[in-house]
Write a structure and sequence with these properties.
Blueprint lengths: L4 H19 L7 H12 L3 E2 H8 L3 H13 L3 E6 L2 E9 L1 H21 L5 H27 L1
Antiparallel strand pairs: 1-3, 2-3
Helix pairs in contact: 1-5, 3-4
């Protein structure tokens, strides 16, 4: 193999983002905003700090992103009943509709990326990448505890 697995994974992710952004140009949604909304769908009611850690952006960067999505009517901040200084983040119904509407485009991108791979190869690839991610995630968690 001429390239390292780290390079291949990063370059592939870059190409996914670039292609996604090109196809979503008219929607006004970027790959990072889409990723943020997917995380919010999975973690409804999360605070900004933990969300920034999940998507690995600086809190101020996330705050600006949330501001833009809130202005677009896609995300809302709700007061945290346990801490009046904190806000809980939720997708709006409009965001849910948007995510459903762009799902065919994201699905088509995955199909295109997996072209030429058999079902077994697709499953194997997904399983292997999930294991790599779990290995790295576990090691990150161990380092953070030290």
């Amino acid at each position: 193999m001429s390239e390292t697995i780290g390079f291949l994974l990063n370059d592939t992710a870059r190409l996914f983002r670039r292609t996604f952004n090109a196809r979503m140009k008219d929607s006004g949604i970027t790959a990072l905003q889409w990723r943020l909304m997917i995380y919010l769908r999975r973690h409804a009611g999360i605070r900004q700090g933990p969300l920034a850690e999940l998507i690995e952006v600086e809190p101020i960067t996330l705050s600006r992103m949330i501001d833009r999505l809130a202005e677009a009517g896609l995300v809302e901040r709700r007061a945290d009943p346990t801490d009046r200084r904190a806000w809980l983040l939720h997708l709006t119904p409009r965001a849910g509709s948007l995510l459903e509407g762009i799902a065919p485009t994201t699905d088509a991108l995955v199909v295109e990326a997996m072209e030429g791979l058999s079902t077994a190869e697709r499953d194997q690839l997904a399983g292997l990448v999930e294991r790599v991610r779990a290995n790295l995630s576990r090691r990150m968690c161990q380092r953070e505890k030290v």
